[in-house]
Amino acid sequence: MCGIIGYIGKKNVVSVLMEGLKKLEYRGYDSAGIAVVNRNRVKIRRVKGKISLLEKSLEEKPIEGSYGVAHTRWATHGRPCEENAHPHRDCTGTLVVVHNGIIENYLPLKEKLKAEGHKFRTETDTEVIAHLVEKYFNSSLEKAVQKAIRKLEGAYAIAVLSTKDSGKIVAAKVGPPAAIGLGEKEFFISSDINPLLSHTQKIVFLEDEEMAVFNENEVKFIDYKGNSLEKRVDHISWSPLMIEKGGFKHFMLKEIFEQPQVVRDTLNGRMSLDSGKVCMDEIGLSPQVLRKIKRVVIIACGTSYHAGLVGKYFIETLAQIPVDIEFASEYRYRDFILDKETLAVVISQSGETADSLAALRSVKEKKALSLAVCNVVNSSIARETEGVLYTHAGPEIGVAATKTFSAQMAALALLALYLAQIKGKINKKESLSYIQALQRIPHKMEKILNQAESIEKLALDFVSFSHFLYLGRWVNFPIALEGALKLKEISYIHAEGYPGGEMKHGPIALIDEKMPTMVIVPKDRVYEKMLSNISEIKTRVGYILAVAFENDKEIHGRVDKVIPIPSANPLFTPFLTALPLQLFAYYIASIRGADVDQPRNLAKSVTVE
Ligand code: AGP
User: Fold this and answer.
1) Ligand 1 neighbourhood includes 353 CB (under 6 angstroms)
2) How far is the CA of 349 from the centre of ligand 1 (A)?
3) Annotated catalytic residue: which of 2, 23, 301, 403?
């Protein structure tokens, strides 16, 4: 939800900020803007629409400066238009601010500031920050920012500059992330590390109620009272190449193809075929503590929620611990019951999703033990949980989550096996057979990816449908949900995921020749039941595509098209069934000419509630 970036240094400021903005564009893309300081005057350019339009505007009429800030927007308050695009100014135009988040009390603040004579130009919540800093400005920008932010309620990561205290950028945050990049005589503030990697791998993550104040020579970290802080410098090992498309048409396609490696990377080093053991030393929760766990609650949003749902089947089957799975946005408002024997597992690729973070904080208030499954190292959720199990998926740029979904499932399979081992629920032989089954998954995924061309051809026949149904049962019910989510978010085709057995309780009424159904039907404990569901659809002239084992001869006479996958241990089939559905959604969206990596109305990291 919005990306902010700021830079002071010797490089071409506009280029650094624009390149950075492009890497943040996945966070929001309905308008964009930049402000640079040139001979102590602020130059601003803003446009409605994508960053490419801002770039075009700057090519036609360049601006230059010695430092500056920039923003890519996902509108919350105020429609997307040039005037509402960031950076926002104070009355004098000498002070600008970029903001990611929501100021909840902006209306009373705005009314008060207006009554005091401040002139507002926009419909945004952010503009109050500029006027508040203006109001409190005396001679030091950081002091004015400190006073201003004490008045704010809500969530924000901000970067502010003013020509009245020139050569300086002040950053502060409560909620959304703010990473400070430390270079050689150059400093950056950014919503995530992606724009920083080509300049520096030395990063400091601001915590809530912390500020960074930097000029060309130095950066200082202070709290909201002005006390100096000693901050840890993280050395990030992600390489800048990881955030390039590498010859693929879209990031999403590249990320789909990275999945076998991502699963290998997430499993590697954490399980042993010699000992039959899963090793979780790194997660920060001891086996003694985890052994006492009697219940697991998984909390997540979107695709991470679907991975959590798969994780529920893994944990219940292997570790025999009851698992509840909850939408973070709902859970936090419930009168939920937790105790010290419950492990709360918060799954989040970004580690910054506001709903998941808020739910985690409520869980911690009830003293439950917490474990994050995160992809972004040192993200807010990873920092606030007692334990962290990292997925090793590398940066995911496509807004639609794909490789991080597989990595999350891999991490959850490991967690399930680990809990099963420490609770004595499986013996060495069983453990070895699951480890072997998991180790074979990446190669099987590669075989599915080799069929991408035939899935593309298949997709051609379905580009003009308006509705789709996805059915799965047992461990593939979550994959039906995920397949439907992928299709709707990138192709804008309405799709519903359903458990096959629930069809007869309502959705079967929808079936006709205009509503194709994708069934996920590997040979598992519900195979026969799925065949019955397939017959029910066929009787009602519905068109059926099936994801089924390649050695399943029976399925061919029962459905219209089959997407074959290699056979595998039934429990781990979600790793395989998810892939064709991702590819199917991708090709349909791509053929329809949709903006696959940046679907309308969405943002990669949802840092507002
Ligand atoms: C899925 O394709 C979406 N990008 C979205 O549902 C996402 O999974 C959700 O917003 C949760 O994000 P997180 O994993 O970063 O918390």
Assistant:
1) yes
2) 7
3) 2
How high is the mean pLDDT of the chain?
94
Question: Active site includes 279?
Answer: no
Give every strand in the sheet of 467-472, ordered side by side.
Answer: 494-499, 467-472, 517-520, 544-549, 561-565
Instruction: Render pLDDT for 89-124 as a digit per residue (tens, 0 to 9).
Output: 999 999 999 999 999 999 999 999 999 999 999 999
Q: Is the CB of 582 under 6 A from ligand 1?
A: no
Judge if the beta carbon of residue 426 lies within 6 A of ligand 1.
no
pTM of the shown model: 0.80
- Looking at residue 135, its amino acid is K
Task: Output the CA 469–ligand 1 centroid distance in Å.
Answer: 21
- Relative to the CA of 356, which ligand 1 atom is closest? 16
Give 305-325 pLDDT, tens digit per residue: 999 999 999 999 999 999 999
Res. 609: pLDDT tops 80: no
Question: 8 — phi, psi (to 5°)?
Answer: -130, 130
Contacts 24+ apart (CB under 8 A), 46-53: 46/82, 46/83, 46/85, 46/86, 46/87, 47/82, 47/85, 48/80, 48/81, 48/82, 48/85, 49/80, 50/25, 50/598, 51/18, 51/21, 51/22, 51/25
Whether the CB of 349 sits within 6 Å of ligand 1 = yes
Q: SS3 of 426, please?
A: coil
For the chain, which domains are there? Answer: 3-242 (3.60.20.10), 245-448 (3.40.50.10490), 451-594 (3.40.50.10490)
**How far is 147 from 132, CA to CA, in rounded Å?**
8
Q: Indicate whether residue 358 lines ligand 1 (CB < 6 A).
A: no
Residue 374 is a catalytic residue: no
